[in-house]
Amino acid sequence: MNSLNKDEKINEFINYIGEGAFFYIKLLMAIGKCIEDNLSDEDDDLVDKLLFDENKDEDFDDDLVYEMAEETYKQWYKAWDLFKELKIKDSNLLEFYDKYNVDLERWMDDFVLVLKVLTRKDKKYVEKAKEIINYLIEHSSDEESKLIYLYELGHLYSLIGEYKKAEDIYREVIDKLPDYPITYIEYAQLLIETGRFGDAEKIMERYYENCEMVCDALYESVIGAIYLNLKERGINQISEKLRSYYNLRDKITDVTDRLYDEVGAERFKKSIKILEFPFENNTFFADEEEELAILADFMIFGSIDGVRTIDNVDESKYDNEILDALKKSKYSLFKVVSTNPKEHIVEIEDVFENKRYTVMDVMMSKTVDVGYLFTSRYVPFENYGIILVCGYAFSPKSETILLKKFKKLMKKLNYGDEETKKFIALHKLGKRYGDLMTALW
């Protein structure tokens, strides 16, 4: 191997990765067949589900999974030896991808996951996994990457039952990288496994405070399971105010999801056309996930052919309190007047009506400034309101010009009732002058 020149070593390196990838794909397929509730085709989801799901199908074919993992390992460890020999720096990964079309960062992450699978069967792979993760920590070019790989090391310790080492690492990562959500989730699971349910709920509260802007559906489902686990055990350490807030959000999500299910194909197509989203070959093209939320909101609350979905459902099948509040909701242009992070409260003003509303939103109260201008749906409840859907954010300096543009647009629009026209006008202004908001809760 040492007699090869650099280009030949790179070719060997890439070949080993490719040969291992063949078995890695088979590994993922084997896992997918063995897991009863396969949520997605994402590699990480599948492997994590293999590692942590205790309710696996009784026909789970461990032998096939481990056979494919071992075959992947054989090829990728050869590639790993060459990777170290070639001394490819973390800062050169993008350049390597551009030149050879090989995503080394993804390969290293996949390799760590393969080792986690093997570690579940045979502890002899623990040292190999430590070697690779420690190498990645040592050679990372930035602090964030180091901490993410440090989390992987903590996760490895948790898998093999070395909970004290795992806990120390999780604490360090949370302190230094507080907006990395998976650390909170794994730490909370560790605490539950070791019987410290109250501590797990405290970690969950920190998770909500620090990570809500970056969490996706997978993380939310995991943390929801942890929350349910704690609730079933009667743990009550989260403040009653926060508990009530999250329970309310859960109820709203349940109702809006079910309302969305009531939307038919024709309404879907008409909504896309009205909002001028790309639609080709019966396929909706969204540039960002937030655009899907805007479309869903319009399909539920917009008046299309004189009918709103929310007014045309069997009310007996829904939570009446939530449904009534949603019917009273309003989509508008709001401005932040004040924030109270300690109480999780934001005071907002409808710039069209000069009316003020009190909103409870954990993350928004910590992240937005006074004067922040945004479109969203406000849902009124007895003690406070809820921001339901993110729309667009605008420069605070643009308020005057936006109001002028809005009035002109409203005169030109001739579709739907006033609230529907208002939504369409704000959507048009947002696409032209604003930025899509990231979910704040």
Automatic annotation (TrEMBL):
Signal peptide annotation: none
Spans of repeat TPR: 147-180
Transmembrane domains' residue ranges: none
Keyword Nucleotidyltransferase: no
A Pfam family the protein falls into: DUF7986
Alphabetical keyword list: TPR repeat
Family matches, as Gene3D superfamilies: Tetratricopeptide repeat domain (1.25.40.10)
SMART domains, alphabetized: TPR (SM00028)
Record's protein name: Tetratricopeptide repeat-containing protein
Species in which this protein is naturally found: Methanotorris igneus (strain DSM 5666 / JCM 11834 / Kol 5)
